[in-house]
Automatic annotation (TrEMBL):
Sorted UniProt keywords: Membrane, Transmembrane, Transmembrane helix
Organism: Chlorella variabilis
Origin: domain of life: Eukaryota
Keyword Transmembrane: yes
TM region positions: 7-24, 36-55
Protein name stated in the entry: Uncharacterized protein
Record's subcellular location: Membrane
GO cellular component, one term: membrane
């Protein structure tokens, strides 16, 4: 579900896409670097990528949580 924070980040993404992705990711990683490259070379793909990252963040966090829970239940062999 889209929250108020996500809407605010989408508005930031229109002006400064890499900043919005950085705030969403809470760290400087490959996703932020990719968005920076997209924004530098062609601004519109950077905006689209930033909004996609922000809106897809909830499903990614859910999958990561499921992976962590699975690893806790099933030890490495």
């Amino acid at each position: 579900m889209v929250q108020g924070k996500d809407i605010a980040l989408c508005l930031v993404a229109i002006v400064l896409p890499p900043l919005a992705v950085y705030i969403n990711q809470n760290k400087l990683n490959g996703v932020v670097c990719l968005n920076l490259i997209l924004t530098i070379f062609v601004w519109l793909p950077g905006v689209i990528h930033a909004i996609w990252v922000i809106l897809k963040g909830h499903s990614v966090k859910a999958v990561r949580g499921l992976e962590d829970a699975t690893e806790a239940l099933i030890p490495d062999l």
